[in-house]
Amino acid sequence: MMYRGSGKVFNSFFFRPLNDSPIVDNLSIHEDMVVKSRPLICSNLFDEFMLPYYMKLWNLFSEAGTPLFSLDSDGDMNPIMDNIVKCHVNTFLPCEPAAGMDAVQLRKKYGNKLALKGGIDKYVLSQSKADIQTELEYKL
What are the domain boundaries of the chain? Predict the structure, then answer.
């Protein structure tokens, strides 16, 4: 984690200034907090234990000019997606269809607040060209 003090950016793990610190273009968290069928944490506990941590990180990085906050978590994140967006996560991946994550429905719900990566059903890719075409037409 980094923080600002006396006009310098510090790496809080080592408490040393980073000279001429570049702007980080993407704060990326890889945290599998769900299984295929459901989250391992409910939304109330997410808000209590994870939201403050994510907000602290995002505030530090966004104040330094970081525009993107990405979260990578497999599985069905639907029950806690509102919590994720509340943390200012603006990029989500892999948007796993086999776990019930529907990129089209997420786009309808969150609009331009949330960029999505993935969302293509990899199992369809082993099927016929017509099945692949149907999958891609729905997603695009």
Answer: 26-139
Whole-structure pTM value: 0.81
| C-alpha span between 87 and 69 (Å, rounded) | 9
Report H helices in 3-99.
43-45, 51-63, 81-86
The DSSP call for residue 39 is: B
pLDDT digits (tens, 9 = 90+) for 3-48: 444 444 444 444 344 555 667 889 899 988 888 888 999 999 999 9
- The C-alpha atoms of residue 24 and residue 45 are separated, in whole angstroms, by 29
| Angle, vertex CA 42, rays to CA 38 and CA 45, nearest 5 | 150
Cβ contact 68:62 at 8 Å: no
Q: Are 51 and 29 in contact (CB under 8 A)?
A: no
Q: How far apart are CA 16 and CA 41, in angstroms?
A: 34
